[in-house]
Amino acid sequence: MNDKKIKVCVYMGSFKLIKKSGVGKAIEHQIAVLKNAGFSVNEVPLRNCDIVHINFILPDSVFKALHARKLGVKVLFYGHSTMEDFKDSFAGSNFFAPFFKRWIKFCYNLGDIIITPSEYSKKILEGYGLKKEIYALSNGIDTDFWKKDSNHLEASKEEFIKKYNIPEGRKIIMSVGHFMRRKGIEEFILLAKNNPDKTFIWFGHTDAVLVPSEIKKKIKNAPSNLIFAGYVDSESLKKAYECSDLFLFLSHEETEGIVVLEALSCEIPTIVRDIPVYEGWLSNNENVYKFKEKKQLDELLSNVLSRDNSSVLKKGRLTAESRNFSNIEKELVKIYNRLC
Question: Angle 185-194/297-306 helices, nearest 10 degrees?
């Protein structure tokens, strides 16, 4: 608990712009964790706060950090972004990536300390030569909410199938993310073409202005067994995890991957690309299934959909519980007490 009664400002400027992203979810998580830990959150003016917590790297966030420093308020910058996960995202992102790296270094160095979601992203940021202390701390997850409701599962699945007009008896493979090459959307579309007997469904949306033209074209020409469900609220997304047969996350680069934690918490068989961010907490055939090359995917899909996954699902749930809000809260309190 917050023994020092620390007062925190979680800066919400530009929140509407990123509310539907992983960063938006992380901010909501932070506020929930801080309030549960007994912190006073956004209840007093900045000048009366002990810490300002900044998640954005837009210009208004820089002004907020500078203003806080002028007032003597400690600045905690959350390092959600790296140059590596900026690449292959929005239109023009690869061209601007080196400039983006300079910008985030400038932003993060305005913090008294930096928190980033994983040991992997911490290692990347340390490689940037940042001058501030960096802590690795998961964004966390509310495993009480992200939990399969077995009592109403049959009715939920009937409703889900009807809502999305899915043929009876079809295996359902879902994914979540922006329309980015980095998120693996092109491969997801190709898998749907190669597996016409299965239904694929992608949750998430990106403003068309930000989507590269080649991605737009592939989405437009996607097969009929692929559904683009758009952005949905947390309750609807939880039902999707419960009612789908497989969660497939093809992302090439992440700083953590909140949706993976959601899927594990809901006990749905989960396939991820074997990338560095998962090292040390996700293990192949233990709590998830991993692949290295695209040619492995078709066979892996069939194997996972036809096997008994109960042991892997239980271990996946335990993994999510290890990053539950209560555990994150304890670590966050330690960091805040250290800062103040």
Answer: 70
The H or E element that residue 239 is part of is helix 234-243
Q: Which two tokens stand for residue 339?
A: 């800062």
Name the amino acid, one letter, at 183. K
Token pair in block for residue 125: 């940021």
The per-residue pLDDT for range 108-132, each reduced to its tens digit, is 999 999 999 999 999 999 999 998 9
Instruction: Centre a 10 Å sphere on the Cβ of residue 25 and count the other Cβ atoms it contains.
Output: 18
Domains of the chain: 7-140+324-339 (3.40.50.2000), 150-322 (3.40.50.2000)
Quick one: CA dihedral 82, 178, 235, 160, positive or negative?
negative
CA angle 110, 115, 116 (to 5 degrees): 115
Cα separation, 319 vs 321, in Å, equals 5
pLDDT digits (tens, 9 = 90+) for 7-28: 999 998 878 787 878 888 888 8
CB burial class (10 A; 0-12, 13-18, 19+) of residue 169? Answer: exposed
| Element at 303 (helix H, strand E) | helix 297-306
Residues of the chain with pLDDT under 50: none
Distance between start and end Cα atoms, the chain: 14
Q: Which is nearest to 247 in space by CA: 235, 234, 261?
A: 261
Calpha distance 40→163 (Å, rounded): 41
Q: Which of 255, 324, 251, 325 is nearest to 288 (CA)?
A: 251
pTM assigned to the model: 0.93
State both tokens at 302.
């069939």
Q: Give CA angle at 101 (99, 107), nearest 5°.
A: 105
